[in-house]
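Key idea: predict the complex, not the pieces.
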Amino acid sequence: MTVTAQKYLVASLSLALFAALIAVGGVDAQRRAQAAKSRQVALAGALNPQLERGRIVFTKYSCNACHGTGGSGGIKNLNAQTGGEINGLMQVSETYTQQELIERIRNGVPNVDKADPTGPDPPLRMPAFKGLIGGQEMDDLAAYLFSLRPSENSRPPESW
Amino acid sequence: MKAMGLQRWLSERLPIPPHWLEKPLKEELPVHLKTWVWAFGGTPLFFFVLQVATGILLTFYYVPYPPHAYESVRQITFGIRFGWFIRGIHQAASQLMFVAVLLHMIRVFATRAYRGPRELTWVFGASLFLLTLGFAFTGYSLVYDQLSYWATTVGTNMIAELPLIGKPMLYLLRGGPDVNPNTLSRLYNFHIGVIPTLFVLLVGMHILLIRLHGVAPLEGDARKETYRFFPDHALREIAVGLVALLAIVVYVILHPPGLGERADPNLTPPHIRPEWYFFPSYRWLKMVPLQVGLWTSVAFVTSMLLWPWIDAALERLAPGRKLGMMIGVAGWVFTLILLVWEAMS
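Result:
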C-alpha cells in the first residue's frame, strides 16, 4: 500500500471514528431520557414523591460517596471526632431542625473537630453546596434526610 | 514570525538537539516490516494510553471503599453523563489490550526475534504481558458485584497456595487473612499506582532496547532495502490503532456495560468463573491437583520469561531440528485448547 493510500485510509478511519463519537452522543441522550423516564415512573409510583426526589438529589451530588448509601455511614476520616469517620445521616432529624440542616448543607463543614487535639487535622471536610443545590432540590434533599431512620434491627435494645 | 519566535523561545529553554527528535522518525527499517503483521507492536502501547485516559476519568467517580464501591460503579454506568461510554471503553480496551499483547508476542515468537542479543527485550515484553494480566485481575476486582467479588476471593485464595511466597503475598494483597475492606483499597492502589508505574518503566526499557538494538532481522530474508519509519510505518501503526478504537466504540455502543448484583460475602454464586484470559490457567488448575497445577504454572511462566535462553540451549542440543519452535508451538496450542475447553464448558 502506498503512503498516499495509507493517508487516505487514516483520514477515512478518523472520519468514521468522528461519526461513531457523534452516535455515542445520541446514545447517551437516549439513555438519559430513558433514565429520566424511569425516574418519573418511580416518582409516580412512590408513596412520597418528594422523598424519592430527595433520594435522587442525594446521589446526584454524590452525598453517598462520603455519607454512605442511604446515609448509612461514612468513609474513614482519620482523627475526626465522629469516631474517625464521616458521620452517617440516620439521626439528623434528632439533632437538627430542617432549617439548620439546610444551612449545614449550604455552608459545609470547613473545620472538622479532632478526636485527639494534638493529632493531625482530619483530611476530609464537607464542601459548601451553596450555589450547587438550592430551591426545590434543597427542600427535597432535606425532607429525604429527615426521613432516614436506622432500621429496627440495627438499633440498640432500649433500656428500662 | 510569531511561530519562529516561539520556536526560538522553546529551543532556548529546552536545548534538545533537533537530530535527537528527528532520528527516530527518520529511522530506516528493514523492508520485511512493510506488512500489516508488523504493525501490531505499537498497539498495546496505544491501548495503554487509552486505558490511562479513561481510567483517570473513572477515578473521578469511583470510590474504593466496599460500602460505596458498587454504588459508585452503578452511578458511573447509569447516572453520570457518558459514564457508561468511558467505562465501556475501559472494559473493552482492557480485553483488546490483552489480545494485542498476545498477538505481538506470538509474532515475536514465530519470527524468533528474541534471539541474542535481544533476550532482555523479550524478558521486558513478557513481563509486560504478566503486568497486563495483573491490570486485568485488579481492575475486575474493583467492580464489586457478585462475580467480581468472588473472582477476587478465589483468585487470591490461589495465590496463598504458591510455595514460600504464597502467604506473604496473600497478606500483601488482602491486607489480612480474608477479603476485607483493606483488600479493595490495596487492589485499587495496585491497579492505578503500582502496576502502571512498573508498566511505564518496563515499556520504557522495552522501547529503549528496540531503539538501541534496531529491529531484529528476519531469518532467511536477504533483502537489503529499507524504508523510513515516518510516514510509512507510522501511518500503518496509526491505522491499526484507529481501526481498534473504532471497533471498541462501535462495540460499546452496541453492548453498553452492565452491572451484576451487589457483592454479598455471605452468598457464593453458583458459577464463579474468571475473565476469559484466565481460562487456560483456571481449566488447568481444575484438571490437576492444586499443588501440581501451581508448580506447573510457575514453571510455565518462568520458561516463558527465560525462553530466549531455553531456545538457544535447545538449538545447541539439536542444531537445525527446531526443537524450541516445536515445544513452543505445542505450548501455545495446549494453552489455546484449555481456553476453548473452558469457554465451551
